[in-house]
Amino acid sequence: MKKNILEIFFFTIFLFSIVFAEEESLVEKQCNRIGNKLGSVSVEDCLAIRLSVTDGESSEGAPILIKEYPPLKKREPLGKVLLIGGVHGDEYSSVSIVFKWLATLNKHHSGLFHWHVIPLLNPDGLLRKESQRVNGNNVDLNRNFPINDWENTAIKYWIEETGKNPRYYPGPEALSEMESNWLLGHINVFRPDVIVSVHAPHGIIDHDGPRVAPEKLGALYLNYLGTYPGSLGNYAGVQRQIPVITIELPYAGIMPTKDEIRNIWLDMVKWLRKNIMEEEND
Prior knowledge:
The chain is an alpha/beta fold. It has a single domain, classed as 3-Layer(aba) Sandwich (Aminopeptidase), CATH 3.40.630. 39% of the residues lie in helices and 15% in strands. The protein has helices at residues 2-35, 43-49, 92-108, 123-126, 154-162, 178-190, 232-239, 258-275, and strands spanning 52-57, 63-69, 80-84, 114-118, 194-199, 204-208, 216-217, 220-221, 244-248. The longest helix is centred in the first third of the chain and has 34 residues, at 2-35.
């Protein structure tokens, strides 16, 4: 009997080691692709974060990676934050700056918030020879989230307001894309109190949903862009009432200065401390 239990135990350990090795290999491969694409993130920078493989992948089979900074024993977090970069593959800075903030969290995670950080939601858009806004199926992930009456909202807007611009194609139907479908499922499981999505190149702060919007983060000031059919802000912020802060960096291909990266981060944390949860009425 003891022999059988030991055999099962060691076989289980063996299986776990295989799975772990496979995940490490996927992360290493993806970090090599990211580090060889972005000038501001090296392969070593990416590997140092120790990202994990999710159950999500792109339309071309690339893994969607994540880093969790969980609650710590010494304090109860104020709330849950979902931080997302690289929704659009040609917005390099939106991925690079998230890696800079990941490095900060790796050193200074205090348990103030429970973080889930996805540095690159659209690997197919970024990690091809000619990076593109859309994913591998040529769909704009930030127009692919659910909205009522798809034909007369998302599709009609794409036709009439963009002239069928392929950069903004919302897809044949809501959640037709693996990446947006996975993200919606992750939101359902994680249940973030705030979502922060990083984009470029408008150089502003946008806000959808409840809570008081931040007036500024670093040198970026609040300036509403509008709510587009099928966007994450529309879906999560307006329809589900999860505050969505969209950070629009000034340039897609040029990183903010080191001081500005730090200032945006500090202002964001300051805003989160005050606004992540609704104040209870006396």
